[in-house]
Amino acid sequence: MHKITRLTLMFIILLLALPQFAQEKPSFGLQFNFLYPSNDFPIKNTYKFSYTAKALCRFDLSDNFKGQVGAGYGGYAGLDYDQHYYKTSLVPIDFKLLWMFSHTPVKPYLFAGLGGVYYKVKFKPTSVSPKSVDDQGIAGSLEGGIGIQLGPIDLNAGVGYTSTDNLNFYRDGAAFDAYYFVGVAVLLGGGYVDSDNDGVPDYMDKCPGTPAGVKVDMFGCPLDSDGDGVPDYLDNCPNTPHGVAVDSHGCPLDADGDGVPDYLDKCPNTPAGVKVDAEGCPLDSDGDGVPDYLDKCPNTPKGVAVDKDGCPLDSDGDGVPDYLDKCPNTPKGTKVDANGCPVMKEEFKHFKLSGDANFNSGKSVLLPAAYPVLDKLADAMVSNPNYKWSVEGYTDSKGKDASNIKLSEKRAQAVVDYLVSKGVNKNVFTIKGFGKANPVADNKTEEGRAKNRRVEIKIIN
Questions:
Q1: What φ, ψ does residue 295 adopt, rounded to 5°?
Q2: Minimal CA–CA distance to 328: which of 387, 388, 385?
Q3: Closest CA to 429 of 402, 457, 395, 393
Q4: Alpha carbon 129 to its chain's center
Q5: Is 258 among the domain residues?
Q6: pLDDT, tens digit, for every residue of 407-433?
């Protein structure tokens, strides 16, 4: 028996002396187990408060196995056949091998262990042992069971066997004394070696040497939230869409340097220095389809057709763009006004037709003598269709006012009718008869009255 115990102690010492190949740090703690004795006395009689209290050291042996050394004090107690109390003090020391199923904070495991126990009977039962029995000594022990470590808390349960039948101071030779147990431990320390302090133990760390303070994933590699191949702590452009090519700073490539990344750039290869919109296309402030940097006529009104230089079209080349040209197809070289129409001769801008030479006295019928000059005026009006005209008839002071107004209006209408017959749009005329109003000469002389009998044609826009 003593040889077994010595071998057990040597085995424990040998295991403690082995180099640690795994990378978890040792942990230390206290364990309290409730014991339920199993021995010669009936089970229903056996239970009295029994326990072991141990100091523990748990250490790593490999990725999946841990070793545990424990030593402490306890009591093994119960009732004999006569219902008398017995109790034996225990001083256990043991080594356990733990088979860990997980490296997560919740670690279930199986365990088995060998050890030795010094025992001394404190209160002897009254039942007489059939065979000789010792009241103290050293025995071997064997334990096995299951456990789970929840952070610093460790729970375990199992069964233990001893190499003695003396724990209850009753020996019949049938079986050695044993016990069931359930317990709890508090462990401090431990944890895996983590050289770069990133929270991932070295044996799992696929990216050793991570700079201090850098967040890492479960494999110890710096986080790359957008998956662009550049870790977050170096990424100047976080949240890059998946699949977008980036530079060494994690920013989407911008081949033409316009500030819009290639994956959003609808106008690649924009010349350097050209201002662009959010889609990477050169600005076109007036929306004419010609970008500003090529547009020689900025601020073209919306909807106006332009040439390749961004200038409004001028089909007849008169210098007035089509959208402003009220007289398209003007012959080449013709001098035009701001509306693109041939410039009106000064003689037609305010034209006076004498009444005596072109109308019979007191009549409104236009005489042939007026035709030549009115034909020239009609040609000018047709060439300038956008002008509005006022045609005003006047008389001298002789006769009744009502008659004079009527006569002056008829003469003005006669002139308009003739001009319309020569192709002038009738809608460009405003006809008024003023009678003797607004004389241009003295009505007291025949010469003056002749000048006052007139038709005036003048531009009003």
A1: -80, 115
A2: 385
A3: 457
A4: 83
A5: no
A6: 999 999 999 999 999 999 999 999 999
Domain boundary among 130, 156, 189: 189
Q: Give the phi and the psi of residue 88 in degrees, each rounded to 5.
A: -125, 130
Give 363's contacts (C-beta < 8 A, 6+ positions apart): none
What's the rounded Cα separation, in Å, for the pair 342 and 318?
A: 10
Tokens of 324: 């402003």
The pLDDT of 133-142, averaged and rounded, is 95
Q: Once rounded to an integer, what is the mean pLDDT over residues 46-66?
A: 90
- Token reading at 427: 């809608």
Amino acid at 271: P
Domain count of the fold of the chain: 2
63 or 125, which is more confident? Answer: 125
> pLDDT tens digit string along 328-366?
888 888 888 888 887 777 777 888 887 666 777 778 888
CA distance 205 to 61: 19
**What does 42-63 look like in DSSP terms, one character per residue?**
-HHHH-S--EEEEEEEEEESSS
Helices (H), 144-189: none
Q: What pLDDT does residue 357 have? A: 67
pLDDT at 23 over 80: no
Choose the final residue of a domain: 167, 189, 211: 189
Helix (H) or strand (E) holding 145: strand 136-150
- Does residue 307 fall inside a structural domain? no
Which residues, 6+ apart, have CB-to-CB distance to 193 below 8 Å? 23, 24, 25, 201, 202, 203
Q: How far is CA 322 from the centre of its chain?
A: 48
pLDDT tens digits for range 194-237: 889 898 888 788 999 999 999 999 999 999 999 999 999 999 99
**Coil, helix or strand for 452?**
helix
Give the structural domain span for 390: 346-459
3-state helix, strand, coil in the chain (%, to 5): 15, 30, 50
Instruction: Check: CB of residue 74 under 8 Å from CB of residue 53.
Output: yes
Percent of the chain clearing pLDDT 90 (strictly above): 65
* Sheet with 429-433, side-by-side order of all strands: 350-354, 454-459, 389-394, 429-433
The dihedral sign for the CA sequence 437, 438, 439, 443: positive
* pLDDT at residue 172 in the model: 85
